[in-house]
């Protein structure tokens, strides 16, 4: 029969401690909350909770590597699955991209798509789209995007937008308790008419998907509403 001696207990504790240590170091290195979130050394999909130190808004953040935008999403914590609620989306895109798209339902077709591109020195256009096939998606008027902020510099363009109509759609919607699949698409080619949300654009050069719960995307409802209030 196995008896717990002091030595046994100590080696058990050491084993637990060392296995925790190696587990932590095997996890993809989560970046800090500053501009290091665009670390050039990173080339794999990472999802984590990101809190903006200035606004205190926390998001579910997805990043893949330097050629793909960082996508951040947030929802009011009171939101129920498959109901109407506003959703926040921030896209921080490398300057090399002509457009970046985000799919709220995890694929190209039959779910709301956000397609964003830079427009002018510090502006961006966010276009609401829907596609029934794998061709240029149509304008989707059941979802509306309002811009919280947009900016552009020599390395990146960024837009943060709030959507009304992206949480629920024909035959689908976001789950606030279970796992959701999201997807993205990007192209290096600039859109034909940057100032026109109905612009046409060329097919993506890269696409990806990820599945996550919205647990890390939940913002206290009052803070969420205050944050998106001035969006136009
Ligand atoms: C001119 C516009 C577009 C064209 C012609 C187009 C065409 C296609 C085609 C042919 C495929 C299947 C082949 C492949 O995997 O490459 C595909 C897949 C995909 N597209 Fe697009 N696409 C366009 C815009 C978009 C946009 C704006 C988004 C997202 C916002 C998007 C997201 C996806 C995703 C996630 C897939 C893989 C999953 C799936 O097939 O549903 N596409 N697209
Ligand atoms: C450029 O913009 C991105 C996105 O807003 C930001 O993360 C980055 O710090 C900016 N770079 C400089 C040099 O200001």
From TrEMBL:
Keyword Manganese set for record: no
N-terminal signal peptide: 1-24
Name of protein: Cellobiose dehydrogenase-like cytochrome domain-containing protein
Source organism phylogeny: Eukaryota, Fungi, Dikarya, Ascomycota, Pezizomycotina
Domain Cellobiose dehydrogenase-like cytochrome: start-end pairs: 50-219
UniProtKB keywords: Signal
Signal is among the record's keywords: yes
Entry-linked Pfam families: CDH-cyt (PF16010)
InterPro entries: Cellobiose_DH-like_cyt
Taxonomic source organism: Chaetomidium leptoderma
């Amino acid at each position: 029969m196995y008896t717990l001696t002091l030595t046994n207990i100590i080696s058990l504790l050491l084993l637990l401690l060392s296995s925790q240590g190696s587990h932590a170091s095997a996890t993809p290195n989560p970046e800090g909350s500053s501009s290091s979130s665009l670390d050039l050394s990173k080339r794999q999909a990472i999802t984590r909770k990101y809190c903006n130190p200035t606004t205190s808004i926390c998001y579910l953040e997805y990043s893949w590597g330097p050629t793909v935008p960082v996508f951040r999403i947030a929802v009011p914590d009171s939101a129920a699955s498959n109901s109407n609620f506003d959703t926040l989306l921030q896209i921080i895109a490398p300057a090399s991209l002509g457009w970046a798209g985000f799919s709220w339902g995890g694929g190209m077709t039959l779910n709301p798509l956000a397609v964003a591109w830079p427009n002018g020195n510090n502006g961006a256009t966010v276009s609401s789209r829907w596609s029934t096939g794998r061709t240029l998606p149509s304008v989707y008027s059941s979802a509306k995007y309002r811009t919280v902020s947009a900016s552009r510099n020599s390395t990146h363009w960024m837009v943060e937008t709030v959507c009304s109509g992206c949480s629920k759609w024909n035959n689908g919607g976001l789950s606030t308790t279970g796992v959701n699949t999201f997807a993205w698409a990007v192209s290096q080619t600039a859109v034909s008419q940057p100032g026109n949300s109905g612009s046409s654009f060329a097919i993506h050069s890269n696409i990806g998907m990820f599945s996550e719960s919205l647990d890390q995307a939940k913002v206290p409802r009052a803070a969420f509403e205050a944050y998106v209030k001035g969006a136009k």
